[in-house]
Design brief:
The chain is mainly beta. The chain contains two helices and ten strands, in the order ββββββββαβαβ.
């Protein structure tokens, strides 16, 4: 981790693998930050081996959740969330959409994943989708629209980043 907020003490990271429909595949993976490193720059020394052959959904994302014992209150709370799509479309180098899956490859390399202060909502106010709509404002304020998917784009659009905080992740293929 890098540049965590000042109220962080000991941190724990949880990795979950979710599809664009928010369905979990695989088991949770957890690790506590090394006690011999700074709380603001923790090292997790987390290695996990994941067999992706069983996954037939190219929209699988690693959802990284960082939690801590908050310094002043000593409450266990979430520092932030990061996400990394595990598969990419070789033509666009972006996360494949479920309806356009076609050919995709496992992502590999080193990444700096920004932390965000929330998760994308499962539903959003219709106001976010009202640019092309020509309706009464009262109807828009009361209407809820389900988000089409849980992907990197939705994450970036709906969740503010925590200034400078990030995780360093390396993916190697076997």
């Amino acid at each position: 981790g890098r540049f965590f907020p000042e109220n962080v003490t000991v941190t724990k990271i949880t990795v979950r693998f979710l599809t664009s429909e928010r369905e979990q595949v695989g088991d949770n993976i957890e690790s506590i930050g090394s006690l011999d490193t700074s709380a603001y720059f923790p090292r997790y020394r987390l290695r996990c081996f994941v067999n992706t052959e069983m996954w037939d959904d190219p929209t699988v994302m690693a959802l990284l959740t960082v939690e801590t014992l908050e310094k002043s209150s000593e409450d266990f709370c979430v520092v932030g969330y990061g996400c990394l799509p595990l598969f990419v479309d070789p033509d666009t180098e972006k996360q494949p959409k479920l309806d356009h899956a076609g050919d995709y490859t496992l992502r590999s390399g080193s990444y700096q994943i920004p932390l965000h202060n929330c998760l994308p909502p499962q539903e959003a106010s219709a106001r976010a989708f009202s640019k092309e709509m020509d309706r009464n404002k009262n109807d828009l304020q009361n209407t809820k629209v389900a988000l089409s998917s849980f992907d990197l784009e939705a994450f970036e659009e709906n969740c503010p980043r925590i200034s400078c905080a990030s995780l360093l992740v390396r993916i190697l293929t076997a």
